[in-house]
Amino acid sequence: MRRGLVPRRFFVADTNFIQSREVVVKLTKDEVRHVAELAKLQLSDAELEEYAGQLGQILTYAQQIQSVDTSAVPPTPQVLPLSNVLAEDASQASLSNDQAVDNAPDADDGYFRVIAVFDDSGA
Amino acid sequence: MGGQNSTEQLTSLGVAEAGAGLAAGRFTSVDLTQAFLERIERVDGSLHAFLRTTPAEALEAASEADRARADGDSRPLLGIPLAIKDVLMTAGIETTAGSRILEGFVPPYSATAVKKLKAAGTVILGKTNTDEFAMGSSTENSGYGPTRNPWDLERVPGGSSGGSAAAVAADEAPAALGTDTGGSVRQPAAFCGIVGLKPSYGRVSRYGLIAYGSSLDQIGPITKTVADAALLLEAVAGVDPQDSTTLPVDAPDFSAALTGEAAGMRIGIPHEYFVEGIQPEVEAAVRAAIEQFASLGAEIVPIHLPNTELALPVYYLVVTAEASANLARYDGIRFGLSVDGETIFDHFRQTRGAGFGSEVKRRIMLGAYALSAGYYDAYYLKAQQVRTLIKQDFDRAFTDVDVILSPTSPTTAFRIGEKVDDPLAMILTDIFTTGANLAGLCGISIPCGFDAGGLPIGLQLLGPSLGEERILRAAYAYEQSTDWRLRRPEL
Which of B159, B281, B292, B339 has the maximum number of C-beta atoms within 10 A of its C-beta? Predict the structure, then answer.
């Protein structure tokens, strides 16, 4: 059963206990680089190293949920007893164009200016 | 200001006390606001609870409140100064969420909760420090430097609403708003010896709250007394057409729940929350509080929440997944920091790499990993399924008991720097609080003692969804039968 796998000292500041777990998750620097690319984060080499270790440690800790039998358990993405909350299809007051672009690092004539998404070489 | 109302006396007041003084004409809102601004000026250099104050706007709002009172307005919050956590948008006032990526961002609109408090006549003193995007348990992750605990300047105030909690504990504000995603109102309230209330999910609109974990975030009051928490909750609660996740119920008169009686209440004590690892003084104080409830006539009921140990890992998978999606909006194009790159994607990478702090990057990475192809089912979906089991534990318990009692945190405030290099040790401080967010419950932390070093200990009372009246009633009865709230930090 699951309970036997879960350490009792689960919230003490000493995290050495996770070494004794059956499943230790290790992330390679390449895996961390892949995730950083998914998240569009520029990371230094030192950060890649650091996160590889720390994410592995946290995921190892999170492994304990794998031992729970959830074959007949529906997921809970949110807790409210609400569905399809509808609003009347009517226009309402909104931000002005000036307000909307007021915080933009680079705005031009009421538009956000961005670097071209597609290069124009036709390649 | 006359000698009778010295600055020192005015700043020791909570919301209800200050309201009574204003109503009786003993002082004006301008007197009160001036006193708090002076207090902030005097002590915040050592605390850093505020990221910025707004004295001109505050004094103007105070004058307006005084004029309204002269015209017969007697609403309970009229002219009461408040501090607002910097993850809540305030129109015209810089809002950074404690992040360098939002430095200089001036929101064009206010959060619904802020709008409601302004409409109730309150005065905003300023914006309080927070862990960056509310990600943390110590306020050390702020992009603008840590906040210190007023009880011991070498220690953290807790987090992520550490600025709000420190401000209230240090008499820099009568009360404040915080936000609680996994304990971020309750744990800093416990570390600072005051009251923190996390409303049920859906009780308070999240519109204008800078999103972290959307299925978990709630805005809640941080106050000196239980009665003040009831007053503020009443002001901010209620359905909001701008937030489709608000529950369609009107806010009841929460203050009416404060009867001073706990007799007959059934108080559940979860076996799983009292295992090895709690600081002995915390356990002793909480056990003494259980005795106190029994002497007040409450029925103490041992209960089981068998999936307790799974709450933290589930919380960290769910909250980081939601965060990685929510924080995708920081792209350096529409607002915030912008760092040039060769291509649009390079622009995103450079901006986000430079603008986010290390804890935020770590959580985005963890969330992106848990949502990525090949891992989604094993981590994110699995966590959502186990979340169901955690919720069912609480649902079952609340068929038998009115409230659930536990420590708020396994320890008192820890030293600044003690856990910064160990993200796992840091997240483990949230062990007793995350369950309420996963299950959508309400919870309150109130003072229940001090450790040998003189640091405050917090007691947590959890109630079912929309059960705020129960936890307020129990908390008030306990508070009124003890005098922990009378001890104040010396600054």
Answer: B159
DSSP state of B74: -
Number of compact structural domains in chain A: 1
What's the domain range around A64? 1-71
Taking the Cβ of residue B249 and every Cβ of chain A, the question of whether any pair is shorter than 8 Å is answered with no
Whether the Cβ atoms of residue A64 and residue B314 lie closer than 8 Å to each other: no
Tokens of A93: 């007051």
pLDDT digit string (tens) for B44-100? 999 999 999 999 999 999 999 999 999 999 999 999 999 999 999 999 999 999 999
User: Which of B334, B347, B379 comes nearest A104 by C-beta?
Assistant: B334
Q: Which residue of A has its CA nearest to B342?
A: A115
Q: Domains of chain B (ranges plus CATH)?
A: 3-272+286-307+395-486 (3.90.1300.10)
Considering only CB atoms, which chain B residues are within 8 Å of A78? 215, 245
Q: Alpha-carbon dihedral of residues B154, B159, B164, B166, nearest 10 degrees?
A: -20
Model pTM greater than 0.80? Answer: yes
How many H-runs (helices) and E-runs (strands) does chain A carry?
3, 2
Tell me: the pLDDT tens digits for B390-404? 999 999 999 999 999
Catalytic residues of B, by residue number, are 85, 160, 184
Taking the C-alpha atoms of residue B428 and residue B313, their distance in angstroms, rounded to an integer, is: 10
Q: Which of residues 319-338 of B touch A (CB under 8 A)?
A: 324, 328, 332-338
Higher model confidence: residue A12 or residue B178?
Answer: B178
Contact between B137 and B143 under an 8 Å Cβ cutoff? The reply is no
In a domain, A119, yes or no: no
Contacts of B200 (CB under 8 A, 6+ apart): B218, B247, B440, B441, B442, B463, B464, B465, B466, B467, B468
Residue A61 lies in a domain: yes
